[in-house]
Amino acid sequence: MSSIEGIPEDLARVDLADKRAILDLDASLYPVEAVYSATYVFIDRCYVLLDRPEAGTLRIVITPKQLDDAESQLRDVVGELANELVSAAWRHQITQENRAKIESVTMQAISGAMGPPTLDDLEDFDFTDEAFEDPLGIAMSWEEKYAKKTEDGEEE
Amino acid sequence: MREVRFHRALYRGESVDEAMKVYARFAKLTPVEEDDHWVVRVEGSSEAGERRIADEMANYALGLTIQRRTE
Hints:
The structure holds 2 protein chains of 2 kinds.
Chain A: E1 2-3, E2 12-15, E3 20-26, H1 32-40, E4 46-54, E5 57-64, H2 70-97, H3 99-113, H4 119-124, H5 142-146
Helix pairs in contact in A: 1-2
Chain B: E1 2-7, H1 13-23, E2 28-33, E3 37-43, H2 47-67
Antiparallel strand pairs in B: 1-3, 2-3
Helix pairs in contact in B: 1-2
């Protein structure tokens, strides 16, 4: 087992005998979804195994399928994987932050694609529900709001 | 003999089973259940063969897990 130049050994190391690299990730920085996205990119040219050696840590064991110059190739793969992990984690965070917006736009698109309501739909629609509360009487007409009242309390 | 350890929190059991079915014709695969892992023992005709089958099976199980994680 040897370290990779520029990367702390407790984060990433290479095993030249088995021709594989091992990355240990902080699960609070790299959610599982991001790890899935990043590793999926590599499974056509590398063998990938995931593990959780302890709570809060995710381990990626990656072995290139074709290996010419073991050490430099492993270093390149680790670098590419690290970049992909950052990118996937960032995409995941953006998706989480905008989930409500994405769902709202998707719902609007789906309801728009369904077309305008038919006369039957309108006939069945329940208009009795109050659309919104109006404590300041903003939605009231001028006549309703300022109409003179008779002595009986009825509006003129 | 070689062992592949699939963590239960990271791999779907169905995906591991399906991967085992695909690669069972290339080597003797024995499932072993542990608390945190599904372990598959791989016994083939050579050490290199065992390693190749174990690696391919792990990739297959991971690919299926990722593809089907939203189901």
